[in-house]
Amino acid sequence: MTGHRDQWFGGRTYAQHGDDLAVLNIFKRLGIEKPGYLDVGAYHPFDLSNTALLYERGSRGINVEPNGKLFMAFLDARPEDKNICAGVAPVHGTLTFYHVAADPGRFTFDKATAMTLGITGSVDWPVMTLNEIVQREACGTWPDLLNIDIEGLDIDVLRAADFGANPPRVVIVEADNGSGDTSHELDALMHAKGFTLHSWCGSNMIFVRVADSDRIWGI
């Protein structure tokens, strides 16, 4: 089963819920062939990645992963991306990075989330805001796609972000990481920032700019 020649986006998905195929379809509707991305809490260059298929198809972007062991894989597998080994938080500085008994992809800066997973250790680690990353690595221009999965701080980080006049076109954010459903709070926050819910992919919510709605849905 290698896919069919008429499949627009190929027969492969790297994402946990097929999020990458959904995103490619949205960007096709918007006429964007190679969307740039900012992948926060990127975890792995291919495994369960919402941006790996975009990279494979010629897109380039920024990956942020605070786990040093996981981060090294990006240097080998995604060398044409900008790769940052740091955490993302509402403020710049240093926070405690909790190591937990679950998969290392669940390591978190949120103590409440870490306690539900079982803390096995911790280390002080540098953190940046979304706006700092965009300013430093993208000259202040938001990439087309913001993918964020940071195990408990997602809402706080998004609330602190200033999208300015040219926000991302698409935002993917995890609404339930096992420590509670935050979908209603996320929906209200993103609505206030000028986004509307496009769809769900598993536990992830996909938001698009309200201004792009007509083009995406063809209304």
Descriptive account of the structure:
This protein has 219 residues and is α/β, with parallel strands linked by helices. It has a single domain, classed as Rossmann fold. 30% of the residues lie in helices and 24% in strands. The protein contains eight helices and ten strands. The protein has a seven-stranded mixed β-sheet with strand order 3-2-1-7-8-10-9, sandwiched between helices. Strands 4-6-5 form a three-stranded mixed β-sheet. Strand 2, helix 3 and strand 3 form a beta-alpha-beta unit. The longest helix is centred in the first third of the chain and has 12 residues. The protein starts with 18 loop residues before the first helix and ends with a helix.
Strand content: 15-25%
- DSSP summary: helix tally: 8
- The succession of helices and strands, N to C, reads HEHEHEEEHEHEHEHEEH
Q: What is the domain total for the residues?
A: 1
Can you lay out the helices and strands and say which pair or pack?
Elements: H1 19-30, E1 37-40, H2 52-56, E2 61-64, H3 68-77, E3 82-84, E4 87-88, E5 93-100, H4 111-117, E6 119-128, H5 130-138, E7 145-148, H6 154-160, E8 170-174, H7 183-192, E9 195-201, E10 204-209, H8 213-217
Parallel strand pairs: 1-2, 1-7, 2-3, 4-6, 7-8
Antiparallel strand pairs: 5-6, 8-10, 9-10
